[in-house]
TrEMBL record:
Protein name: Na+/melibiose symporter-like transporter
Stretch list, region Disordered: 1-51
TM stretches of this protein: 64-90, 102-119, 126-147, 153-174, 275-300, 306-327, 339-359, 365-387, 408-428, 434-453
A cellular-component GO term for this protein: plasma membrane
Membrane topology according to the record: Multi-pass membrane protein
Pfam families in the cross-refs: MFS_1
Organism: Micromonospora sagamiensis
A molecular function (GO) term: transmembrane transporter activity
SUPFAM superfamilies assigned: MFS general substrate transporter (SSF103473)
Origin superkingdom: Bacteria
Cellular localisation: Cell membrane
Amino acid sequence: MSTTDAPPPGPAVAAPRADPAPAPTVAARTGPVSTAVPGPSEPAPDAAGSAARRLRHNADFRRFWFGEGVSLFGSQVTALALPLTAVLTLGAGPEELGVLRFLQLVPFLVFALPFGVWVDRSRRRPVLIGSNLARLVLIGAVPLLAAVDQLHLWVLFAVTFGVGVATVLFDVCWMSYVPVLVRDPEQLVMANGKLGATSSAADAAGPSLGGALVGALTAPVTLALDALSYLVSMIALALIRTREPVPTAPARRRRLSAELGEGLRWVVGDGYLRAIALVGAACNFVTAGVQSLFLIYVVSDQGLDPALLGLVFSVGAVGGIVGALVTSRLLGRFRLGRVYVGSLAVAFAACALIPVVGGTPPVRVALYTALYFLMFGGVTTGNIVVLSLRQTITPRALLGRMNAAMRMLMVGFGAIGAPVGGVLGGAIGVREALFAMSAAAIVMLVPILLSPVGRLREMPPPAVEPVEAA
């Protein structure tokens, strides 16, 4: 999941899209540009080393990376401490926890697209700082209210929803801000790899850290420490010196619906983005369904100790760190399309094998851990490739709306996959439902293999920036 100005200009890929709205026109891609972009398929070792050195010396990206890393670890702590506050402090039951989870996810469906328009109209850094400030205040209010015995379940619901809204805004914005700090496409892949490795490290260590803090300090006090993580992120963002250009104002004021439509048309009209959106949404649907069934299957049906289950997830998440660290090397050695197809094929093959695992408890734990290691690693590598591709081929004026549309599709289908898996498990049995989801994972290999992204040799030329219509 960084550059000082617009991406360097590249050749137009297709004729500009005709848009009846009197607004900036953007060079549109009507489909895949080319399956073999001219130029060497493998960067020279000196060039790759030079790009890595330049990224290491990019002080503003380092500041952003540090602040984002602290915030990611804090978010993982929140994900555990908020529901534990509901259970341990307020006596919430499964129904209330279901509402809490819903309130965490629904902002992505409701606010992602409007926030994308806002991000494209604004400088990104103030928006990032503001969203972190909102999370700091909301999460910091929980321990204060608990200390004076004024924390109620409806208050926690409101805080959860507010934090979810701020998280949507931050997520949409940071993906559009990284190309402001990192201009070179090769460095962009490396930057996304570093952010991906940090995210995977937070996935691996965050739950354990959160559990230890809750056990030692109580859930509300843990949230107070989490609030401080957003303060650290705000300070890191405030120290960034790269000047962000003011977004070009349209010739005439445009309606929100017109700008939303422009972003959606960009995603649907571009062959690469359309394939990424469809494959990604289906992938999230399948993995969310498998995840919800897996928890019930291994704990209730197989009697796996919850502590061992946590070990499976934590060690498995290390695969994401490994995947993030090797992505740049893989892209230096193999074609971009092969890395994309290979990484997702590994992830879904591992997903499909989950219901066939057998043997003694230690053997099952070892096999589940290995499969989750492969899943995390494959998905992380694939995510870095497609995120870098999205950032490269989308004009900066559309980055917010493009990322918002992608987030809405990914989170939306992920949210649907979990209840569908639960309903299927109740209807035909948990293990049988896992087999059904595994079959869907195998079917997913077909669109991955047919995707135009899989035929790319290297990163396409950067997008042409908007030009004002007469």
